[in-house]
Amino acid sequence: MKWYFALNADSIAHDRLYARCVEVAVLSALQHTDLQPHMLFDGPACDLTRWVQRMGGVVVPHRSSLGDAIAASSMSAGMKQIARGAYMRLDLPLIDFESEYVLYTDCDVMFAGPLEFGTLRPALFAVAPEFTIGDFSQMNSGVMLMHLPGLRREARAFDEFVRAGLDQFPAFDQGALRAFFAGRWDELPERFNWKPYWGLNDDAAVVHFHGPKPPQVVQIVDHPEQEIPNVLRELHGRAPTAYAHYLGEWQAYSARAQAL
Amino acid sequence: MAGASATRLTRAAMRAGLLEACGAAWVTNVPEFVAGTAPALFEDARMEWAAQSFAGGRLDGARVLVLGGLEGAHAMRAEALGAAWIDVVEPERMSLLKALAVKEALGLGCRLHRCEAALFLRSSQATYDLVFSDASLGQAADPIELIKQICLHASRCFVWTNVHDPDGPAPPRPYAQEVEMNGLHARTYAEAPGGAAWLDLDGLVRCFAHFGLAAHIVHAEVRDFAAGAHVSVSFRRDSAGEWSNG
């Protein structure tokens, strides 16, 4: 199965956080799964695109089809930069005409075990809860099992819907998906989008650093005097042991990536 | 009354005792211990071939993973060439015990692991400067998974392995299987379903290249061999430097 993730070159222009996230995601995916990495990349070829290709991944140059609408929106410059990356996933039905099902994840994931979706065959897409286990109504679009033909049939109407409300959706694509497809998505078991603040889970197949990113976890633990949003401290405080474990794994992958 | 010298074991006798504890069926000729019937593997050139992908043709300071313990011979050769850290992975019980005996008898510093090669790598976050694989690929039911795992842990790999050659004298391998893994498409050949699956040389090279070890040198290629064609090939990542005395 193809696995897609998306990145805007602006996200890696000033620090290597998201480049390291990509390296960890790709290395852990290859280590544990048969997925073929595909990176939607908005920007020129760079060290990261070459690294992904060297690891057997595919780099798909792409700019969000909503780029003009994002540019014309009332978002701040920083939010526009994030939006250009976040909204790229919505273009997948119009990028990949070969695949029936693909996996999409955010860049800040780490694969921890083989992916076996069993009989799960969503008509549109399957997603896991965001903050609360069992609450699939408040889903998280950071990991999606996508049925591309199903989504393609709704692509035009969805595009019009997103353009009309671009400034209002909370959490970018996630807000748009929740609003347009309300009640129509399938449930993806939590272990495919496991958040460290839910605690340790030996069955987790995909660990998603939703909330504090690994360097922020280091900051929270080692430099508590430094300024960091309270919500991130609160999430870390729910399961510090799990954060320590998953951070260690993440750092080990990141170190390996430097050697490859 | 016996003198003290008569009750003291010589160092050679201590070594011999360790090696004899593993029984008589040694494959190799262990130094200072008359044993095996097969080639003098403690003197074979393959570790030197592997070291050709390093500056000066030596392994000084290198981290080396040996897949296939071969009674400790490869660990000894790697250490002699200067390797600083050697892990040896051997799934077969008796081979592992022999390697352990050799390690103790010769005072080697390697670490031994009883494990199937791909499983060891899949469970590890270690990186190596060199993976030395002797026969492990040719014995694997899923050689592509093993190649992938090697490439995810190392910048260089030396492989001695059997390869499929339909025109060779070896027994036919009629069970061809199309394998897709992480976007790679390859074909393997087995004598029986679920048995050891071999790639042909082109497939071997393509698999390593797909997972990042794109440069290679074929050191030896033996086609006319009754037990199956075999090759000795070094692979490395493009960023892993130049060949030495290629």
Low-confidence stretches of chain B: none
Q: Categorize the overall geometry of chain B.
A: globular
Number of strands of chain B: 10
Strand count of chain A:
9
Strand content of chain A: 15-25%
Structural summary, described in words:
- The complex is a heterodimer of chains A (260) and B (246).
- Chain A contains ten helices and nine strands.
- Chain A is of the alpha/beta class.
- In chain A, α1 crosses α10 (240-259).
- Chain A starts with a strand and ends with a helix.
- The mean pLDDT of chain A is 94.
- Chain B is α/β, with parallel strands linked by helices.
- In chain B, the strands form two sheets. In chain B, strands 3-2-1-4-5-10-9 form a seven-stranded mixed beta sheet, with helices on both faces.
- In chain B, β2, α4 (93-106) and β3 (111-113) form a beta-alpha-beta unit.
- In chain B, α1 (11-20) runs antiparallel to α4 (93-106).
- The model of chain B has no long low-confidence stretch (mean pLDDT 87).
Features:
heterodimer, A: 260 residues, alpha/beta, 7-stranded mixed sheet, 10 helices, globular, B: 246 residues, 3-stranded antiparallel sheet, 8 helices, 23% strand
Layout: helices, strands, pairs:
The complex is a heterodimer of chains A (260) and B (246).
Chain A: E1 2-8, H1 17-32, E2 36-42, H2 47-54, E3 58-61, H3 67-72, H4 77-86, E4 101-105, E5 109-111, E6 125-129, E7 139-147, H5 148-153, H6 155-165, H7 173-180, E8 186-187, E9 206-208, H8 214-222, H9 230-238, H10 240-259
Parallel strand pairs in A: 1-2, 1-4, 2-3, 6-8
Antiparallel strand pairs in A: 4-7, 5-9, 6-7
Chain B: H1 11-20, H2 46-51, E1 63-67, H3 73-80, E2 85-89, H4 93-106, E3 111-113, H5 117-122, E4 130-134, H6 136-139, H7 143-151, E5 156-162, E6 175-181, E7 184-190, E8 197-198, H8 201-210, E9 215-222, E10 230-236
Parallel strand pairs in B: 1-2, 1-4, 2-3, 4-5
Antiparallel strand pairs in B: 5-10, 6-7, 7-8, 9-10
Helix pairs in contact in B: 1-4
